[in-house]
Amino acid sequence: MPATALTRRSCLAQSAALCLGTWAAGPAQARSTRRAVVINMALEPDSLDPTMAAAAAVGEVTHYNVLEGLTRIEENGAVAPLLAESWSVDGTGRHYHLRLRQGVRFHDGAAFDAAAVRFSFERAVAPSATNKARKALFDNIASIGTPDAHSVALTLHHPDPQLLFRLGEGPAVMLHPATAAQAATRPVGTGPYQVAQWRRGHGIELAQAPMYRQTARLRMHQASFRFLHDPLAQNAALRSGEIDVAFNFATQTVRRFQDETGYQVLIGASTGKGLLALNQRRAPLNDVRVRRAITHAIDREGFIRSVLDGRGVAIGSHFSPADAGYLHLANMYPHDPERARALLKSAGVATPLRLTLALPPAPYAHEGGPVIAQDLARVGIVAELQRLSWEQWLNGPFKGQFDMTLINHVEPLDYRIYADPGYYFGYDSPAFRDLVQRHGAADNARERQLLWAELQRQLARDAVNAWIFAPQVGTVVRKGLRGTWMNYPIFVHDIAAMWWE
């Protein structure tokens, strides 16, 4: 989502008032003391445990703030120490030795040590686990050694050049062994803040954690997340001074704040992939000709201009321009309504073909749904729009109950979701799974590079989904607030790095 391309190693109306609980009288007072910040997010998390929940919004609230991992990912995509203060890897790329930071305690005072690392990793591969990094990260760990309380030795089945990056993502945060079961609602972590209150449907409040190892260095003592997805409500909250940061603000209205004296607009990059997901468990979407027809029907550039105000790049596979080794494959399916109609005819599809198009409550979906429906109508596909709450989307489309849905996948390196036939869009390809396995097992860098390119081509050939855009992140920030990110290699809000000037 950048103004310029981001690489992983370089620069990759509703209620307008929010009560901040017993520890602050309100946003105006919080700002006057220069110790609190109010952040708006379009989607409310369904859980506070990023190791078991799928939504990126979970990590936006808790990752770095409440829960920490062994490594951290910086704004420029670089990997830095966090709970692991150092590490080494042998020449095979399969054996890692991590030295843990000493003096770290959970919010309840319990010491963080190697046993907590072992617990967190073993929990991620338990039979009942729903950790979305299981296949990419945890299933590749052959053994976990704990030579002493402050050392962890990992042995991998296959070398993974991205291991340290994966350890810095939300699904790899460390949980308290005694309280992990409550992490969905009351997570106990090692981070600088703890959850003070969760008013569902309204906001989440974080307060400074007394047991944090560097409390004296914190310049932000409190934070509040609120959840407004409607652009008019977001606009009203900003203009009334109720929020300090509007993250991933509706891009078509960002320009209104570019000349505002009280705010600045940050346009940055992320690894997001915006797509029209297609349910391959349902006919006729299980026919590749129909999926190709849908992809040809969509005017990607027109979508980016009208919905994203031009802030995005057309893509043709589930890989971001921010990814090393990215192939630009959008030209495989240029906007061609005539070709789309011919493919539908060859598939024996009688038009009008009626399909539902489920829309989560994000602005890009509510604004983009009618645009997609208009494109599809030109080739004989009638899309019935269904506007859903985030909870409805998670309990419907994300569980396979849909025809089509417009969604932005923000997690980096998440191509392995296509190796899971049980994932919500139901792609079942032995050929793709074989590519994933070969890529994961490859020891030679050149072989991995070639397989990486083939992974992208395979998804594009199969037209698994209709990929549309890699969007930019438009964030409106109150002037005087420092430390907010502009680029998002992962979706987090590092409150401890923020301060008021």
Concise account of the structure shown:
By secondary structure, the chain is α+β, with helices and mostly antiparallel strands. The chain is built from 13 helices and 21 strands. The chain has a 7-stranded mixed β-sheet, covered by helices on one side.
Shape: globular
How many angstroms does the end-to-end distance come to?
A: 27 Å
Name the structural class. Answer: alpha+beta
> Unreliable stretches, pLDDT < 50, 5 or more residues?
1-32
Fraction of helical residues: 10-25%
What does this structure look like?
By secondary structure, this protein is of the alpha+beta class. α7 packs antiparallel against α9 and α12 runs antiparallel to α13. The longest helix has 17 residues. It is globular.
What are the SSEs and their pairings?
Elements: H1 27-33, E1 36-41, H2 56-62, E2 71-73, E3 79-81, E4 84-89, E5 95-100, H3 114-124, E6 141-148, E7 151-156, H4 163-166, E8 193-199, E9 203-208, E10 222-227, H5 231-239, E11 245-246, H6 251-254, E12 263-268, E13 273-278, H7 288-297, H8 300-307, E14 312-314, H9 337-346, E15 353-359, H10 363-377, E16 381-387, H11 390-395, E17 404-409, H12 430-441, H13 445-461, E18 466-471, E19 473-478, E20 481-482, E21 499-500
Parallel strand pairs: 1-10, 1-11, 15-16, 15-17
Antiparallel strand pairs: 2-3, 4-5, 5-7, 6-7, 8-9, 9-10, 11-19, 12-19, 13-17, 13-18, 14-18, 20-21
Helix pairs in contact: 7-9, 12-13
